[in-house]
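Final report, closing paragraph on structural work. Over the funding period we assembled a curated collection of sequence-structure pairs, and we close with a single example.
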Amino acid sequence: MPDYDYDLFVIGAGSGGTRASRVAAAHGARVAVAEEYRVGGTCVIRGCVPKKLLVYGSHFAEDLKDAKRFGWDVPDRCAFSWPTLRDNVMAEVDRINGAYTATLENNGVEIINARAVVTGPNSLRLGDGREVTAKTILVAVGAHPAIPECPGHEHGITSNEVFDLPDIPKRILIAGAGYIANEFAGIFHQFGAHVTLINRSKEILRGYDLAIRDRLLQISMMKGLEFRFDATFRGIEKHDDGCLTVSMSGHEPITVDLVLFATGRVPNTHGLGLESAGVAINDRGAICVDADNRSTCPSIFAVGDVTDRIQLTPIAIREGQAFADTFFGGKPTRIDYDCVPSAVFSHPPMAGVGLTETQARQKLGTVRVYTADFRPMKNVLAGRDERALYKMVCHGETDRIVGIHMIGPDVPEMMQVAAVAVKAGLTKADFDATVALHPTMAEELVLLR
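Its predicted structure, as stored:
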């Protein structure tokens, strides 16, 4: 048998790579993980964790206004310090980074703070020039923000740089209409910026239920966010005063203080040397893998966003766990990608699981749809006109719930339990038979008509 330096070498210490490394080491494998930036990956360092903290911070803008209706003596203008929030968020990121690092070290994983590239089916070269070998290689390098090809694109930023801004821009243009674009649109709007979103199509948040995303669009426009559809970048011109003028198809140019690209994410396979081992890459730049996360090279595997299956942190974690259990723990495991819940932390947030109404009609033919369209109790007393919308999609013949979709305060917190019900194959009758928990917004789920 060949003598390898490691049983498993992992490239990338994000959510998937960290989980795979820790679990494989716990199963007794000799494991090393190479990370050229910081342990924790996109989610912890520059993604969902710090972004969710910004969402929490931005909600105080509306909460302070609403507080007056609840008897609190709140000044008309409350001072907000972006540097305070930014620095506190980054301090929390540092804490989590330290916790991830300690977890790996405590499990005997060797952390190599350097870039690693594949040089063959069982070999790698590190950033310092050192060559190492491994019986198995796992690629878990994630993805990076896509940047449109247009003159002046270097003047824009991506979600990676948002957390380092010195201050909040007065005018911001966000390119894109997916979850990243809508989340940062809500954040910056609540912090006082005028936000314009441009999108090359007529739709926002494709893949989510039409009625839910239409409600978000209506509420966003009511709040003062501006949308420009059928707009494609033509160029960005930077002026002497630092302002940026963006030209686009179908619309007049617009001058702003910041341009944020939120136009999707691209797998980080460029320059990894995967071709040296015969690893197949698809036209999106993602590593092609089978149900066991194995690439076209038998000794090289991949998990997480670099495979471009479902770009969600919990998916990467489950894939990393399944990989380690299968190949180092003697417990063959495969991931079920059906009924994966997701959320958009917009203002207000939305969440969904299972088939949308359109998808259900195309797949099942006959469906029944139940809804609740209401003003949450807090909004009523606060004098806000925003309405929540809950939607349940059922198979027309069996009554089985095939999808639940919601928009309104705190719906991501409810969706996890709703997802269990959909995954379990419960019916509308099962929800109807459950006594409502009153007064809550969640009770509307068992009162849908």
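The chain has a mean pLDDT of 96. The domain at 153-263 is CATH 3.50.50.60 (FAD/NAD(P)-binding domain). We thank the funder for supporting this effort.
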